């Protein structure tokens, strides 16, 4: 769906250029047997796409920025980060309208340590179960009664025309988004300046600054997909407000911090906020799950 959206944008900009889709299924789409963090992390969703870029089968790849590892591999570049859709998490249930309405002991499905740690920090009475598969598969499992509620991304549901399935959107105070959530990243080979130039008009400077600040937090904390970490920035004129958290997987240890800085220097702001979290004790939390701040 997001690739089709980018194709339509490119065809509007360059009507003389034919834009074709190369259908692919990634390892992350196929490996559904366990939690994402234990089978290879978010890089599973882009590995095959980068192989197609490397061997010339594809000129560009479209990613959800929340699925892009914080350190890009050599030979590849993010040519553009698009305007951001709704970055919030979605609470989806067949019976309950809000997270607060869920009775104690309810089963909530999510594959994200970031989401589950925040849920447990606020609602330790809930039972969290792993949830994998594409969006339709996850919704089917909910409808079949395997879960009382599931947590998905608002932007993903809207892009698929499934906004009606959202019971309520979780505000950042309830569930801080993942770095880059709601934005699309357009990747190409670093030696394809021609492709990068074509993609540049699709970029959004404000969204890019926010995403770069958020990714700098994740990178400063170790850049490990197994980390229960969230980061979310909002731009207002020349200013950037950045919030982030680090938690233990069970939510019992939870550290949060917030900083303001300049839109022109998003990475510096993200690095400073990561350092503040480390000073507050994030290193000990991360060490317990095998991660290490940079």
Task: Report the CATH superfamily of the largest domain.
Answer: Periplasmic binding protein-like II
Shape: globular
Number of strands: 11
Q: In the CATH classification, which architecture of the largest domain applies?
A: 3-Layer(aba) Sandwich
Helix and strand composition category: alpha+beta
In CATH's first tier, which class of the largest domain applies? Alpha Beta
CATH topology (fold) name of the largest domain: D-Maltodextrin-Binding Protein, domain 2
Tell me what you see in this structure:
With 294 residues, the chain is α+β, with helices and mostly antiparallel strands. It has nine helices and eleven strands. Strands 5-4-6-3-7 form a five-stranded mixed sheet, with helices on both faces. Strands 1-8-2 form a three-stranded antiparallel sheet, sandwiched between helices. Strands 9-10-11 form a three-stranded antiparallel sheet. Helix 8 (205-220) runs parallel beside helix 9 (266-288). The model is unreliable at 28-33 and 36-41 (pLDDT under 50).
């Amino acid at each position: 769906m997001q690739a089709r959206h980018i194709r339509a944008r490119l065809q509007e900009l360059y009507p003389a250029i034919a834009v074709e889709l190369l259908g692919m299924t990634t390892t992350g789409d196929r490996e559904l047997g366990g939690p994402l963090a234990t089978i290879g992390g978010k890089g599973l969703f882009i590995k095959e796409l980068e192989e197609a870029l490397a061997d010339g089968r594809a000129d560009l790849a479209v990613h959800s920025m929340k699925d892009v590892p914080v350190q890009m591999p050599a030979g590849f570049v993010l040519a553009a980060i698009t305007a951001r859709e709704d970055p919030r998490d979605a609470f989806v249930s067949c019976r309950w309208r809000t997270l607060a309405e869920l009775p104690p002991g309810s089963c909530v499905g999510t594959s994200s340590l970031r989401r589950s740690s925040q849920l447990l920090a606020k609602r330790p009475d809930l039972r969290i179960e792993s949830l994998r598969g594409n969006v339709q598969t996850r919704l089917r499992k909910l409808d079949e009664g395997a879960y009382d509620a599931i947590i998905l991304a608002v932007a993903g549901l809207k892009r698929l025309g499934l906004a009606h399935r959202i019971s309520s959107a979780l505000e950042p105070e309830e569930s801080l988004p993942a770095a880059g959530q709601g934005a699309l990243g357009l990747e190409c080979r670093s030696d394809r300046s021609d492709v990068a130039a074509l993609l540049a008009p699709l970029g959004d400077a404000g969204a890019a600054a926010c995403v770069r600040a958020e990714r700098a937090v994740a990178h400063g904390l170790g850049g490990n997909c197994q980390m229960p970490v969230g980061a979310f920035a909002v731009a207002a004129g020349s200013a950037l407000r950045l919030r982030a958290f680090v938690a233990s997987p069970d939510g019992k240890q939870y550290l949060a911090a917030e900083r303001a800085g300049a839109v022109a220097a998003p990475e510096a702001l993200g690095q400073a906020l990561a350092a503040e979290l480390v000073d507050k004790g994030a290193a000990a939390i991360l060490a317990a799950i095998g991660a290490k701040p940079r």
